[in-house]
Amino acid sequence: MTCPFSEYRPLPDGDGTPRAYCAAAEEFVQAMRADICNDRYGLDHATDCEIYRANADGEVGNGNESGDAP
Amino acid sequence: MTYEDYLAGDPVILTAALTGGVHGKEANPNLPETPEEIGRAAAEAEAAGASVVHLHARRPNGERSFSTERFQEIDDAVRRYADDVIIQHSTGGTAAPDDHRARPLRTDPAPEMASLDMGPLNRYDRLTSENTRGLVDDLYDEMRTRGIKPELEVFNDGHLNEVHGLLERRDLSAPVYATLIFGPGTLTRPTPQNFLNSVANLPPGATFNTLGFGRHQLPFATMGVLFGGHVRVGLEDNIYLRRGELAESNAQLVERVAEISERLGRPVATTDQAREILGLSA
Ligand code: SF4
């Protein structure tokens, strides 16, 4: 499942192609990081992205994503 | 290659790393991403003095692609716009499955050169680009079968050991061509002392290319010129012309190092000279 923070937006300078944007970091992400955002190549945002791990609490299930007791 | 080669005034091969697979237009809007943009950037870099273009492929939205078809589209565009530049494909790719890594080698015709990462490196906080010996050997074997010259990417001194190991396991044709990479993280720390040590630790007879990341691009390019090596610059490795000022194009970065090289007494290699130095069949 794609990261819940992941969005696609056009660059503000007029490039109309939607690009990976991280709503947690509030910035466009690097081309390579987009692989994590989209869980491509066996990557997983919940384990492989430090930004997700820092922001998951409160945004997506109060840190209970892994199934731990709240 | 040594200071003696500098004194001899041997030509410098300039490689332009046009696009890379990590950052995109979000970092510098002048970075080419589409086949059309990459083709035009290759022609401009060639006109500025580059005889080799190092290429990655991207999806239409700028994200990484490993597909043979996308590399083919890029090569077609490069050949359409550029005169006779040497095409070098990247086989790098953090976290991409091994079978994806060989796909850039399968265009028709094959690229004259391809990169071969010599070992693992860290990315962000939780990712490692593994580059196991098994993968290195497999990629090398496919390059050999297809007549592709490997550019051995040495991100640190441990990778220099791996170059020596590869030479024990495989019969590389001369000259061995290694890119010495300096910068943060897993890379060799960017100091002049480390540069000299890395050069001294290359296998005898090896030819080297010099790559400094970010603000280290210019000083390390200059050291590469002074110590008989070759130089790679481009928006893949550095998006700035100087502190706070984004580079306008790959050609601008190539032009700057071409000027330095000529001023220091080493002419910029023509594509024919580069082919001869690298032992590529014309
Ligand atoms: S994976 Fe990380 S960088 Fe990507 S959208 Fe999620 S939190 Fe942001």
UniProtKB/TrEMBL annotation, chain A:
Superkingdom of this protein's organism: Archaea
Q: What is this protein called?
A: Uncharacterized protein
Automatic annotation (TrEMBL), chain B:
InterPro entries documented for this protein? Aldolase_TIM, BKACE
> In which organism is this protein found?
Halogeometricum luteum
Name under which the protein is recorded: 3-keto-5-aminohexanoate cleavage protein
The keyword Ligase appears for this protein: no
Pfam families named among the record's database cross-references: BKACE (PF05853)
- Which cofactors does this gene product need? Zn(2+)
Entry keyword set: Metal-binding, Transferase, Zinc
Q: PANTHER family, from UniProt?
A: 3-KETO-5-AMINOHEXANOATE CLEAVAGE ENZYME (PTHR37418:SF2), 3-KETO-5-AMINOHEXANOATE CLEAVAGE ENZYME-RELATED (PTHR37418)
